[in-house]
Amino acid sequence: MARGRELFRYCATRLALAPLMLWLIASLVFLLLRVAPGDPVDAVLGSRAPEAAKAALRSSLGLDQSLWNQYFDFLSRLVHGDLGNALINNESVRSIISKTLPASLELGITALIISAVLGLAVGFSGIARPEGKVDLAGRFYGIGTYALPPFWAAMLIQLVFAVMLGWLPVGGRFPPSLIPPEGSGFLLFDSLISGNWAALQGSIRHLVLPACTLGLLLSGVFTNALRLHLNRTLKSDYVESARSRGVSETQVVLRHALPNALLPVLTIAGITVASLIGGALLIEVTFSWPGIAMSLYESINQRDYPVVQGIVVAIAALAVMVSVAVDLLVAVLDPRIRY
Questions:
Q1: Predicted pLDDT of residue 161
Q2: pTM to 2 decimals?
Q3: What separation in angstroms does the CA of 178 have from each of 170, 184, 209, 312?
Q4: Which of 138, 181, 303, 324 falls 20 to 30 Å from 74 in CA-CA distance?
Q5: Is residue 39 part of a domain?
C-alpha cells in the first residue's frame, strides 16, 4: 500500500515536470533563433529587396516588435496549439509536421529495433567467457560503433551498397515510378494494409540503408550497457548464492542475471531516443529521407522561425513523453527503485 502511494507520487511528479521541460526547451530555441546570425526577411525576399518591402514583411510577421512581445506571443500561440505558418510558403507548421513525422517515426522505430537486437546480441555473446576473444571483440564493437561519425558512416555505406554494388537505392523514401499508398503516412503499414506488394517492396528497399546505418551507429549503446550491467549482476551475492545451490550457469544467466541487467538497459533505450533524433538529422540529409529532421535542416538554412520552433517543440514533446513513459515503466517493474 505504501509503495503504491509512493509510486503514484513519483508518477505525478514526473508528469508535472514534463510541461516545465517543454517550456524550457521552447524558450531556449526561441532565444537561440533570435541571436543566431541571418535575417528571415532576407531569406524570404532576398538581400536585394527594397527596404520598404522588407519593413512591410517584418511588420506583418511581427518581427518589428520587442523581443518580449514576440516571446509572449509565441508562448500564447503555443499554449493554444497554434504553431504558426511557414515564412517561405505560408503552409501551416502543424501540416508540415503531420506530413513529415510519419517518415521519421518509420525510420526511427526500425532503426531502434535494429540497434536493440544487434547491440544486445553482441553484448550478450561474450558473457560465456568474460575477457575472452568474443567479449573483447564485443567491447571494440561497442566503442567503435558509438564513436563512428554518423555522416562519414552514412556516406561510406551509401557508397558501397548503393553506388558500387548497386544493391539498394541511393536515397529517397519511395520509388519515383510508383504512386505511394494513401493513409497514415507510414508507407510500410499503408502498403501492407492495401495489399500493394510492389509499394511494400519499394518502401523496404529504400528503408534498409538509412535504418541499418542509424541502427548500427546506435547499437553500441546497447552493447556497452548490457555488458556493463550483466557483468556487474553476475558478480552479485544472489547470483553467487544461486550457483552455490547447484543452479546451472545457463539458468543463472538467463533466469537470474539477464532480467535484472535488462532493466537499466530499458532506461538506456529511453535516453537513446534523444540520440536517435540527432543521428536522424544527418541520416535523413545524407539519404534524402523526407522526414521531420530533413524539414528542420531546411528550415534552419532558410531562417524559417515558426517551422524551426514548431518542429523542435514537437520533437521535444515526443522525447519527453518517451522518457517519462520509460521512467514510469521501470519504476513499476523494478521494486528496488526508491522514489
A1: 92
A2: 0.83
A3: 17, 18, 20, 32
A4: 324
A5: no
